[in-house]
TrEMBL record:
<dbReference type="Pfam" id="PF07727">
    <property type="entry name" value="RVT_2"/>
</dbReference>
<protein>
    <recommendedName>
        <fullName>Reverse transcriptase Ty1/copia-type domain-containing protein</fullName>
    </recommendedName>
</protein>
<dbReference type="InterPro" id="IPR013103">
    <property type="entry name" value="RVT_2"/>
</dbReference>
<dbReference type="InterPro" id="IPR043502">
    <property type="entry name" value="DNA/RNA_pol_sf"/>
</dbReference>
<feature type="domain" description="Reverse transcriptase Ty1/copia-type">
    <location>
        <begin position="1"/>
        <end position="50"/>
    </location>
</feature>
Length: 170
């Protein structure tokens, strides 16, 4: 066995150590995704999804490149390991993996435009914190889905001020 030193990069996740703690991000992965999709020169936006956006399956909608849509959403889901700010937007667009249209692809493109604005975001696990404090934040959108009137809920859990779990679920 050989000691390779401190972890710096693993499976697309960058690990940075500092006096503040350990920072995990997927900056390179996000920038590569923008480059591969031709969105590196796009106009950035401040939010991953439009406020109040209600996606649904339109009757007679024309499906656009199913493989491309599924690949993009899948690659964006991998980003959610260090990007909890994408959880809700990805839960919305992933519901239409097999039946999507132009409005759904536009929502995915908006997430990419958001990445352009915030490619370096990630998770900081801070040092010297009170590990006995636990905070949980939750929210729900009751019967908010246009297609089936199902609810969406989500939560974030912090232990000692560090984000440890998050989830958004329909």
């Amino acid at each position: 066995m050989k000691d390779l030193g401190h972890l710096k990069y693993f499976l697309g996740i960058e690990v940075s150590r500092s006096s503040e703690g350990i920072f995990l991000s997927q900056r390179k992965y996000a920038l590569d995704l923008l480059q591969e999709t031709g969105m590196s020169g796009c106009q950035p936006v401040n939010t991953p999804i439009e406020e109040g956006l209600k996606l649904c399956v339109e009757p007679n909608q024309v499906s656009i490149d199913k493989g491309r849509y599924q690949r993009l959403v899948g690659r964006l889901m991998y980003l959610a390991h260090t990007r909890p700010d994408l959880a809700y937007a990805l839960s919305v667009v992933s519901q239409y993996m097999h039946n999507h249209g132009e409005q759904h692809m536009n929502a995915v493109m908006r997430i990419l435009r958001y990445l352009k604005n915030a490619s370096g975001k990630g998770i900081l696990f801070a040092k010297n914190v009170d590990h006995q404090s636990i905070e949980v934040y939750t929210d729900a959108n009751w019967a908010g889905a246009v297609d089936d009137r199902r609810s969406t809920s989500g939560y974030f859990t912090f232990v000692g001020g560090n984000l440890v779990t998050w989830k958004s679920k329909k």
